[in-house]
């Protein structure tokens, strides 16, 4: 089961990014709990409330995949003291983590996709039985899909577009880095 715990949000004005809070997604499957990203400090109470509403105890979270190391995706990591933290080794960070790589199965039916472009080590999480990809900022918002645009902040536009197209070719649904689940095959 995939559940969006916190719907992320981006606010821009005159082309400038003013506010960013990532989506937090739970994957609950075969007795384990995986979270993808932890959002910003400003969304901490919202995350705690939604964990409680979903009857998820923070101490029971088995793993957290960080799609990349930007603070709006990592700021609440301390809420999950027993979780194994996973991130791509190309991410520059002082966070202690287990490295993950492209096409690595981290749990049965759940794979890491290396989707660089926003950052060198950006990853997405493919939940195979649901044909759904939790994209992080490889696809920050639904608007990126609709307008066929890369993330506004990227290290390589062409690489970012290739990652976005890879995700869209594989998935029936996508959860962007800053938004709710999008059904692609309606």
UniProtKB/TrEMBL annotation:
Metallo-beta-lactamase domain: residues covered: 22-178
Entries under SMART domains matching the protein: Lactamase_B (SM00849)
PANTHER family: METALLO-BETA-LACTAMASE DOMAIN-CONTAINING PROTEIN (PTHR23200:SF49), METALLO-BETA-LACTAMASE DOMAIN-CONTAINING PROTEIN 1 (PTHR23200)
Protein name, as recorded: Metallo-beta-lactamase domain-containing protein
Lineage: Archaea, Methanobacteriati, Thermoplasmatota, Thermoplasmata, Methanomassiliicoccales
